C-alpha cells in the first residue's frame, strides 16, 4: 500500500475518483493514509470488498465525499432497512449526494438544523389524560383505513 500511496501522491494528487472495488479490503485504516494525499477526492468505490463493520467508515469520515459505493460489503446486510443504512453512512459523510449510485436529498445546512430544533422543541403534543388523545387516534385509524 505504501508504494501505491507514493505513486498516487507523486503522479495524480488531483485525483477526484478512486475505484477500489473487488479488492478484498477488510479495513480502511491503510486507505485513510492514501486519501490524505488526494485532497480533491469526491468519489470512492469500495463495492464488493470485505468490510464487516460500518465503523470502518470512521477512518474516512473527514473526507468530503460526494459519492460513495459500498455495494456487497458484509456490513451492509446488518441494517434492518435501507433508511437506517443511509442514515449510518450519512452520519459519517454529511455532504454525500450519492450512495451506491442512488441520489440522496441535499444535506441539511446548520442554520436549517437550528430552525428544525426550535420547531420541534416548541411542539408539546396532546396533554396526558386529555380527551383529545383517543379522538385523534380514532380519526387517524379512520383515515388510515380509507387509504386502503
UniProtKB/TrEMBL annotation:
GO terms for biological process: poly(A)+ mRNA export from nucleus. Gene3D superfamilies: Ribonuclease Inhibitor (3.80.10.10). InterPro entries: Leu-rich_rpt, LRR_dom_sf, NXF1/2/3/5-like_LRR, NXF_fam. It comes from the Eukaryota. Residues 1-101 form the NXF1/2/3/5-like leucine-rich repeat domain. GO terms for cellular component: nucleus. One of its GO terms (molecular function) is RNA binding. This is NXF1/2/3/5-like leucine-rich repeat domain-containing protein. It comes from Gouania willdenowi (Blunt-snouted clingfish). The lineage of its organism: Eukaryota, Metazoa, Chordata, Craniata, Vertebrata.
Amino acid at each position: 500500500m505504501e508504494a501505491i500511496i507514493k505513486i498516487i501522491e507523486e503522479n495524480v494528487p488531483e485525483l477526484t475518483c478512486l475505484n477500489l472495488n473487488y479488492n478484498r479490503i477488510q479495513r480502511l485504516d491503510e486507505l485513510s493514509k492514501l486519501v490524505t494525499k488526494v485532497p480533491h477526492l469526491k468519489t470512492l468505490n469500495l463495492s464488493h470488498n470485505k468490510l464487516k463493520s460500518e465503523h470502518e467508515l470512521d477512518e474516512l469520515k473527514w473526507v468530503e465525499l460526494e459519492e460513495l459505493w459500498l455495494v456487497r460489503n458484509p456490513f451492509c446486510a446488518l441494517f434492518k432497512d435501507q433508511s437506517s443504512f443511509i442514515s449510518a453512512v450519512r452520519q459519517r459523510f454529511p455532504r454525500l449526494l450519492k450512495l451506491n449510485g442512488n441520489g440522496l436529498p441535499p444535506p441539511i445546512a446548520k442554520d436549517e438544523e437550528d430552525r428544525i430544533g426550535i420547531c420541534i422543541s416548541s411542539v408539546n403534543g396532546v396533554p396526558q389524560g386529555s380527551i383529545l388523545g383517543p379522538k385523534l387516534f380514532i380519526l387517524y385509524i379512520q383515515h388510515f383505513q380509507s387509504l386502503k
